[in-house]
Structures are given as C-alpha cells and as structure tokens.
Amino acid sequence: MPTDTPANRWPLWLLVAALLAFLAGGLIPGALRAAIEQRLHLPFAVPPVAHFLLSGAMAAGLRWCRPCWPLAVVLMGVLTIGGLAEVAQVWVPGRQPSWGDLGLDLAGAAAGLVAAASVRCLRAFIAR
User: Fold this and answer.
1) What confidence score (pLDDT) does residue 1 get?
2) Does residue 94 contact residue 29 with C-beta atoms inside 8 Å?
3) 20: alpha, beta or left, given left = phi > 0 and alpha = psi -120 to 50?
4) Where are the alpha helices (DSSP H) in the chain?
5) Mind listing the pLDDT tens digit for each residue in 8-34?
6) How far apart are CA 90 and CA 85, in angstroms?
7) How far is the C-alpha of 67 from the C-alpha of 123, rounded, in Å?
C-alpha cells in the first residue's frame, strides 16, 4: 500500500472479511447449512459460488496488501486455508471434505489475482 490511510485499508478489510466468512461458512453443520440455503431461495448452490468468490477475495486482498510476495506464495496461502477448512469438515456433523471445493478455491484465487493485477494496472494508467 502506498500510504497508510483508512481509504487504503480496504484490501485488508476485504481479506479479513473473506477469511472469516470462508471459515464460518465452511464449518457450519450440514443441517443448518441446508436450512439456510433453503431459506435463501437462490437459483444456484451457495457453496461453489462461496468457495470461488471468497477465495478470490482473499487472494486479491492478500496480493494487494503484500504486493512483493510471489504469486505462488499467495496461491499457497489461500489453498492452505481452503485445505484446512476442508480437513476440519471431517469433525463437523453432516459435512465432508471435497477435492472439488479445493479446485474452486484454486480457480477463485487465480481469478482474484487477475482482478487485483487488473485494478493495479488500471489505477496506474489513470494516474498517468
């Protein structure tokens, strides 16, 4: 971050909010998760979309806050969080780990890195 002002801290808040939502959503018992999904009446399944979007938000926020970190480190960080959440589901009633969810985490993290790079390039272009 170029300067440490409240307006420039949004990537950090995005990272923290995405991490908390990811962990909270990943550890909700199966019956409660099904009840929440049914109550929302959404035309799509929430977990795949949540994995993709929240992993993307975590990767974008982490990349923005730590631009000097290699892309591989950011990806591994997000995948480690996703992997730990999947492993923790072994002990959550009605939940089971899924390789597909980890794949969605990877795809979302890659999209988040592309989005962060695009925003940086756009900001640099506008500042010229």
Assistant:
1) 44
2) yes
3) alpha
4) 10-26, 30-40, 46-65, 71-88, 99-127
5) 788 888 889 999 999 898 889 989 988
6) 9
7) 15
What is the pTM (predicted TM-score) of this model?
0.86
Beta-carbon-side half-sphere exposure of residue 93 (alpha carbons within 13 Å): 3
96 conformational bin, left if phi > 0, alpha if psi -120 to 50, beta if neither: beta
Q: Which residues, other chains included, contact 29 with Cβ-Cβ below 8 Å and sequence gap of 6+?
A: 92, 93, 94, 95
Distance of CA 28 to the CA centre of its chain: 17
Contact 63, 74 (CB under 8 A): yes
pLDDT in tens, 94-121: 999 999 999 999 999 999 999 999 998 9
Q: Does 128 or 93 have the greater pLDDT score?
A: 93
CA distances for 44 relative to 11, 41, 68, angstroms: 28, 9, 37
- DSSP-based three-state secondary structure for 49: helix
Residues 6 or more apart in contact with residue 73 via CB below 8 angstroms: none
